[in-house]
Amino acid sequence: MKLIAIGDNVVDCYLDQEIYYPGGNCVNVAVNAQRNGAEQVSYIGIFGNDEKADHIKYALKQEEVDFQHARSVMGISGQPRVTLKDGDRIFIGGPKNTVQRMFKLQLIDDELDYISNFDLCHVSCYSSMESELEKLSNVIKISYDFSSRKDLDYIRSIAPYIQYAFFSAAELSEAELGAFIEELIALPFEVFALTRGSEPALFFQNGVQYEQKLNPISIVDTMGAGDSLIAGFLVNYLNGDTMPSAIEKATLSAAKTCGMYGGFGYPKKM
Length: 270
Description:
Blueprint: E1 2-6, E2 10-14, E3 19-23, H1 25-35, E4 40-44, E5 46-47, H2 51-62, E6 71-72, E7 81-85, E8 88-91, H3 99-102, H4 109-115, E9 120-124, H5 133-137, E10 141-147, H6 152-158, E11 164-168, H7 174-185, E12 191-196, E13 199-205, E14 208-211, H8 225-238, H9 243-258, E15 268-269
Parallel strand pairs: 1-4, 1-9, 2-7, 5-6, 9-10, 10-11, 11-12
Antiparallel strand pairs: 2-3, 3-15, 7-8, 12-13, 13-14
Helix pairs in contact: 1-8, 8-9
């Protein structure tokens, strides 16, 4: 399958290591789609003009993710600050005057023509792409990471444009989780999934539930594990795997990410 990711790019700044790593949901998904065997992967986003943006581009080149249609503007890259506690990443803020906050993508016809050559477009709630989803949905299927955003009015407003939806639901009680799932089943997603921290993720295909099978692993850093899970699932599912097989391969993809620092490696001194 061929995947294009459109949206956020950042560097995750690990304060205890004084090192930063390239990341952002869409960049992480793009790189991990390539690592999971996608035939072609591209990325469109807004880069700053600082050395951190240069490092993200370097990593994308090394991973053979094309970004010829990305924009570059004057300004600083997103650079959330991170600490680790028992391998789990904790975000503790970062500068607000970044290019991701100051600028927004608006896709033009030539780009939509280019995007239509792919099988799937991945977007996230951090991409500020809500106004572009209808245009995108006219030329390609869309995967969307809602992360921890569970505002039902927001979800319903963009659900008609999305085939594959992903949510982080670790903080929900069993009762809250059940009620939320009932709301999601009523929406037109082909597949939706809910990650639950250390608990097995739940996947739903046309209303049928599948549960992830977890194996014990040694965790170095959970940064990007959910993005790696998404990429592993999408590539294998769209390549024709059954739901259980795609979920199993997605789990392996996430486990590999948990064994390294950063979303997909490439450390650089701050």
